[in-house]
Amino acid sequence: MINLNYPHFPFTREVLIEKVQEKISDKRFQHVLRVEKKALELAEKYQLDFEKVSIAALVHDYAKEVSDEEFQQIIKEKHLDQDLLKWSNAIWHGVVGQYVIEKELGISDKEILQAVNHHTTGSKNMSDLDKVIYVADFIEDGRDFPGVNEARESANRSLDEGVLFETKHTLLYLINKQSPIHPKTLETYNYYVANKRDI
Ligand code: GDP
Ligand code: FE
Ligand code: FE
Hints:
Low-confidence stretches: none
Bound molecules: guanosine-5'-diphosphate, fe (iii) ion
Largest sheet: none
Helix content: 55-70%
Mean pLDDT: 96
Structural class: mainly alpha
Number of strands: 0
Number of helices: 11
Shape: globular
Distance between the termini: 34 Å
């Protein structure tokens, strides 16, 4: 298994894993462990800090089973953009979930919280950490959908290619089932498609 210390954080990986495991179903917990594995592979390839990558991956879906009522309350209490109230768990567990993670796990690292914030919709302002979590979530070893191998190949060429492929795929999927597209998802697509020639 992974032998990874967190020298800059006041908790060990083992303790963090226990807290995540208590908060979500076993099925989702297994997904989270696979996202961490994939994210660490990408971190090695693209030379990112293993500590932050591991923590961000382990917490990225921490808030996925939080109730709608709790998310709505946080949006109001924290005076977040009230347009958020129009969305649902799919968007809230990242964008609002970062506050749950901060409060319950005591994680205040802005880079980690931003990676959680951006992990579902992406953003035009993604750090490499954000990109690694966004992409690892999509291509972890348990994912099995038409196109997943192409997604993995894209991520092996560059993080930006991985982000663009995933965003395009997610948009097509959402449009096919007539789901509303969050403005950040469109922002991510437009930004990465415009930069395609640089990829
Ligand atoms: P997961 O939490 O590991 O399942 O993965 P994600 O956090 O990446 O995605 C959660 C869900 O949000 C998935 O079903 C995505 O298809 C969906 N999603 C991503 N972007 C959007 C969007 O712009 N609008 C809507 N309605 N759903 C989205
Ligand atoms: Fe998620
Ligand atoms: Fe996930």
